[in-house]
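Hey, resending since the last one bounced:
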Amino acid sequence: MSGPRQHGRSAGTGTRRRTLILATRNPHKVAEIGLILAGLPVEVISLAELGLDLPLPEEEPTYAGNARSKALAVARYCRAWALADDSGLEVEALGGRPGVRSHRFAAPDAGDRQNISLLLALLADVPPPRRARFRAAAALASPEGTVWVAEGTWEGEIAAAPRGAGGFGYDPVFVPGVPGGGKTVAEIEAETKATFSHRGKAVRALWPLIAELVGRE
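The structure tokens again:
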């Protein structure tokens, strides 16, 4: 996990102190990030709660680039502090794929089941352990256009078949090494995932900045 990195500034005006907008329309991410941020002196608001159908750019070749673009788009439009993340699954036997294209692995509009089906088909002849990692980047953007980015990873393996009803994305086939126990992420509690996950690590690395910059009076 790397610490936060400051990016460049651009023009912008206004701020909504003590409010943090999540740059996502994924309700699963909203719930998970809400758990990760619990206890911080901020009011977390999602795009859905604001009734915004704002385009979120994801055209960069890296997780950090995509997270930065999404956070900036929301911060500038809303003139408020914004938090975004971008994440993906990297499988060693597939040379790091699906990677930054994890959400569009099977097709541009693919769903979780399609992506998982393609992944397992490609790994059909690969014996265990089929090592993989989740990787995430989280970006905090100010209304003026300053961005801080942090990253996190979660090491594990790919299961033979999907298991569990929780989580989202590739959670049903990812078996993390920590906390262990042989369960997929879809079989563990949401609080446990928030504690150990790649997204949790990335967002928590930004905690001091969120508390100081967003939460200050």
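The chain has one domain: 2-214.

Sorry for the duplicate.
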